[in-house]
């Protein structure tokens, strides 16, 4: 594919690959498709646990291609979801791993949260984590 001349578009696939590679390294996984699914499902769950304004604020911190993934399928009128417990969050993410279940959903989600902490501003991550209930908030730190 040729260059378009817009950095965010031209470098988009490399940015996604970088995030997936970091997630694979952190979790000691070799399956990049699995890491992509974890990233996608965790981003969607985070987005749906937030109010509309906070969800948009977090999206603004994401690279363009990941922002598109984040917004895919979003229905702002259905957010924030209920219940918003840690158990419901982990079950939501885990439910997408039917063929090869997550060994440790908490560790997997925490790895995505850690990746977000490394890539977004600390102020935004504090706002996002503070929007969540304490048991789920603990996975951010």
TrEMBL record:
Top-level lineage group: Bacteria
InterPro entries assigned to the protein according to its UniProt record, in alphabetical order: DUF2267, DUF2267_sf
Pfam families in UniProt: DUF2267
Name the record gives this protein: DUF2267 domain-containing protein
């Amino acid at each position: 594919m040729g260059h378009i001349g817009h950095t965010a578009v031209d470098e988009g696939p490399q940015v996604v690959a970088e995030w997936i590679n970091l997630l694979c390294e952190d979790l000691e996984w070799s399956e990049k498709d699995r890491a992509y699914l974890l990233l996608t499902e965790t981003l969607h769950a985070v987005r749906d646990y937030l109010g509309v304004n906070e969800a948009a604020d977090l999206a603004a911190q994401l690279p363009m291609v990941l922002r598109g993934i984040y917004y895919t399928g979003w229905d702002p009128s259905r957010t924030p979801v209920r219940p918003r417990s840690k158990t419901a969050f982990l079950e939501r993410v885990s439910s997408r791993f039917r063929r090869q279940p997550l060994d440790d959903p908490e560790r997997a989600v925490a790895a995505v949260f850690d990746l977000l902490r490394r890539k977004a501003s600390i102020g935004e991550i504090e706002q996002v984590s503070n929007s969540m209930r304490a048991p789920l908030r603990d996975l951010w730190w």
